[in-house]
Amino acid sequence: MAKKDKYQRLTYDVFDTDMGWVAIVGSDHGIVRASLPEDTPETALDYVQPEVNTAEHAPAEYVDARALISAYCAGEPIDLADIPIDTRSATPFFRKAWDACRTIPAGETRSYGWLAEQAGNIKAARGAGQAMARNRLALLVPCHRVISSSGALHGFGGAGLPLKSRLLAMETDR
Question: What are phi and psi of 7, to 5 degrees?
């Protein structure tokens, strides 16, 4: 099956949260792409390219996901792993890394080495780093919880390390 055939129908929503605008695009199998909180709806939509280009705006389909993401961004102790994701177009290693990342409890961190081991290749810490760098499911795959083995914070999309630090602090303070 060709990559573009995997998503027969795509829909999207963009909404304001306490942390900024979030855009999500989904298929019948779950969310395929999500933005980090951004300053404007346009910027959030830019981060869910190219899928949003062929998606239909259907906010009614995302009432539950919007409520959970909004509550999370308001600092409530919400587990976003309850929101289904669709990772069928990702490599098997990336899928395993993203699934493992979703098991990291809020307020806790794990290393790229731990993530690689959970994804089935203990020697693939750099590959785990690439899975996090190419994470297209921001917040739903909480890559902000993955840090270096030294405990240092490393690259993060959107607003960068200040947002990564803010998300971790918000989760720790709950």
Answer: -110, 90
Which helix H or strand E contains 171, and what residues bound it? helix 161-172
Of 69, 143, 163, 168, the active-site residue reads 143
Confidence of residue 34 (pLDDT cuts 50, 70, 90): very high
User: Which residue type occupies 158?
Assistant: G
Q: Please state at what angle helix 125-133 crosses helix 92-101, rounded to 10 degrees.
A: 80
Is residue 68 domain-resident? yes
101 as an active site residue: the answer is no
DSSP 16-71: EETTEEEEEEEETTEEEEEPPPBSSHHHHHHTTTTGGGG-EE-GGGGHHHHHHHHH
105 and 65 in a common domain? no
> What's the pTM value of the predicted model, to 2 decimals?
0.88
Q: Structurally, how many domains does the chain consist of?
A: 2
**Dihedral angle sign, alpha carbons of residues 115, 117, 119, 124:** positive
pLDDT of residue 173: 80
Give the end-to-end CA distance of the chain in Å, rounded to a whole number. 44
